[in-house]
Design goal:
single chain; alpha/beta; seven-stranded mixed beta sheet; five-stranded mixed beta sheet; 15 helices; 46% helix; globular; binds nicotinamide-adenine-dinucleotide
Length: 423
């Protein structure tokens, strides 16, 4: 029985998609049935319901999760998401993706993910701090510098990581910076971490363009989601010569086929909270943004955005997945038939976890690198990983997602064989 059938997740939810992708790649590998099932299950899942005192004196109960998918290659690593639509299955899927992502780029980590069902924009700064400190305390039975190291994801940022680090340190009685990554540099964060995911997206876009014979000078780019990943990718892609023609966030999108000034768009978003209203641009809906004719499409918002429904209407040559899981497996099938190249999330957005790894190493050694050293090492790992995935794709005649998953799953399975099944 396949892992997908075994766990019987509902159709098209993120966990179902993650299992289908897993099955597709695992079919190419000689993994024994029991090992395959073991790799499909999350290792441990924690659900917490916890109270937070609101500014008006009332108490609200929130629900949060922390899931470790695999500890085969090392301690677990994965972001914490604050979003009103967070579900257990979404966090499961993202934890599993983190396992393959760390493995495909050669990091000594297993996958994890956490989340709280909350719209952080509806909380005051002090409510957000109290929620974060309580959630951090609730999940501290799973979190440690040696065991599980969270990082930012959608709705969280360096300040949230600072509160988690401080909360954990208060309970220990001494400063423990390596318990989280993505911290502000002032308290042990790494140079280059904020830009790392967008920088990695830019590096793989460049490598993919080279592979496809596409000239980046003047190549048009549309970006869905203008948060940490999307905005940095926009700035860095424009620096290498691309023309950013469309961008969006939760409130809507903007388009200008003559090009948007990425730096000014970032300033506008910082000032107004949205890309909407950017001078000289036309308004476009989030769905229509995906269908804007462009050379490179960078989905950098949430999962499940490109499906078998809209994949047929995309007018792009290359998709670089800044977000985790933005294309459903059925959407992937349509894109493959249409010969649209997809650089999968577990490769394309791995820059964040790579520099998080550098931050963790720097924190443990109390020896800090320059931004140049961080960026050089990031570039080296991204280029090497892209080349390895492209090689598997050619050798096995599979798309790049399946190739990346084959590499990631194979590495974890191999380590599991060597470690053995306890006891
Ligand atoms: P973020 O919260 O900084 O930004 C998310 C952006 O997406 C916001 O601008 C939001 O307005 C926008 N958005 C949300 N829903 C949208 C929708 N339906 N249409 C258009 N825009 C929408 O989050 P982030 O850290 O940039 O993460 C974005 C994606 O990248 C997520 O899938 C995350 O898991 C993935 N990712 C992030 C990192 C990282 O280092 N931050 C690393 C790897 C992967």
């Amino acid at each position: 029985m396949s892992a997908q059938a075994m766990l019987m997740a509902p159709k098209e939810d993120p966990w179902d998609s993650a299992l289908r992708q897993f099955d597709r790649a695992a079919d190419h590998l000689p993994i024994k049935r029991g090992i395959r099932e073991f790799l499909a299950y999350p290792k441990r899942e924690l659900t917490v319901h916890f109270p937070v005192k609101m500014d008006d004196g009332s108490v609200r109960i929130f629900t949060g999760y922390r899931i470790h998918h695999s500890t085969v290659l090392g301690p677990t690593k994965g972001g914490i998401r604050y979003h009103q639509d967070v579900t257990l299955n979404e966090i499961r899927a993202l934890a599993m993706l983190m396992s393959w992502k760390c493995a495909v780029v050669g990091l000594p980590y297993g996958g994890a993910k956490g989340g709280v069902v909350v719209n952080p924009k509806e909380l005051s700064q002090s409510e957000l701090e109290r929620l974060t400190r309580r959630y951090a305390t609730e999940i501290s039975i799973l979190m440690s510098p040696e065991g599980d190291i969270p990082a930012p994801d959608v709705g969280t940022n360096p300040q949230v990581m600072a509160w988690i680090m401080d909360t954990y340190s208060m309970h220990r009685g001494y400063s423990t910076p390596s318990v989280v990554t993505g911290k502000p540099v002032a308290i042990g964060g790494s140079q280059g971490r904020v830009e790392a995911t967008g920088r990695g997206v830019t590096i793989v876009a460049r490598e993919a363009a080279r592979m496809l014979g596409m000239n980046l000078q003047g190549a048009t780019v549309a970006i869905q989601g203008f948060g940490n990943v999307g905005s940095v990718a926009a700035v860095l892609l424009s620096k290498v010569g691309c023309k950013i023609i469309a961008a969006s966030d939760t409130r809507g999108g903007v388009v200008n086929t003559k090009g948007l000034d990425a730096g000014k768009l970032v300033e506008h978003k910082e000032r107004t909270g949205s890309v909407v209203g950017f001078p000289g641009a036309e308004v476009v809906s989030n769905q229509d943004l995906l269908e804007v004719p462009c050379d490179i499409l960078v989905p950098s918002a949430l999962e499940g955005q490109i499906t078998d429904d809209n994949a047929a209407r995309l007018k792009t040559r290359l998709i670089v997945e800044g977000a985790n899981g933005p294309v459903t497996p059925a959407g992937d099938d349509v894109l493959r038939d249409r010969k649209i190249t997809v650089i999968p999330d577990i490769l394309a957005n791995a820059g964040g976890v790579i520099v998080s790894y550098f931050e963790w190493v720097q924190g443990l050694q109390q020896f800090f690198w320059t931004e140049e050293e961080v960026n050089e090492n990031l570039e080296r790992i991204m280029v090497r990983s892209f080349g390895q995935v492209a090689q598997v794709s050619t050798e096995r005649n599979v798309d790049l997602r399946t190739a990346a998953l084959i590499r990631g799953i194979d590495r974890v399975a191999n380590a599991l064989y060597i470690r053995g099944i306890y006891p």
